[in-house]
Amino acid sequence: MPEININHLDKQQVQLLAEMCILIDENDNKIGADTKKNCHLNENIEKGLLHRAFSVFLFNTENKLLIQQRSDAKITFPGCFTNTCCSHPLNNPSELEENEAIGVRRAAQRRLKAELGIPLEEVSPEEIDYITRFHYKAQSDGIWGENEIDYILFVRKNVTLNPDPNEIKSYHYMSKEEIKELMGKAARGEVKITPWFKIIVETFLFKWWDNLDHLSQFVDHEKIHRL
After folding, report:
1. Torsion of CA 55, 149, 137, 7, to 10 degrees
2. Three-state secondary-structure class, residue 145
3. What pLDDT score was predicted for residue 76?
4. Rounded to whole angstroms, how far apart are CA atoms 73 and 90?
5. Model pLDDT for residues 121-157, shown as the tens digit of each residue
6. Is 85 a catalytic residue?
7. Identified catalytic residue from 86, 115, 146, 167
8. Residues in the chain, pLDDT under 70
9. Choosing from 95, 115, 146, 148, which is the catalytic residue?
10. Are 49 and 34 in contact (CB under 8 A)?
11. How much is the pLDDT for 1?
12. For this structure, is 222 an active site residue?
């Protein structure tokens, strides 16, 4: 694996680079494990290194979507606006369990607490709906990037927020119209958004948002969308 100088990076974020992500093949079958650092180096991504990830979309009871702006300390896509929470299940027995994607949903509960301070008891894994998966690849800069099969997860609940400033620069509950305005600003270069958020908004989000009471019609655990 390549050697990369990380001395200039945020110390708390560098510690997270040692976490062990789940390596998968293009059909989301586990084939091993590697560090978060190695999974996010473009040099490895170009060789085909692929890992499992998730994206949470949390709506309050007014059907507004919780959006975050990633902190400037983040190693990939710093300062970008994105969905509620985006991260990776880890290579441990609890988060490897694949039945009904319970391992991924446990990981989502863990990261909602770590990033947004949402108490564990407020959002259980059983309250997190797994909709579908998609595969995407994107570069953050010349060194770091993403190559993931991303589980899209929905939650509808009012929650208590206490975000970690090392993870999150700002957060906002937004209506559909406000999300459309945000996308327009991003298209004009006024703000930055993450590539996975852009893909999900443009491909899936609004038709799902219009049917939050009837999401079962969109659930597809067989197909992996290639986007």
Report:
1. 70
2. strand
3. 87
4. 21
5. 999 999 999 999 999 998 888 899 999 999 999 999 9
6. no
7. 86
8. 1-14, 16
9. 148
10. yes
11. 46
12. no
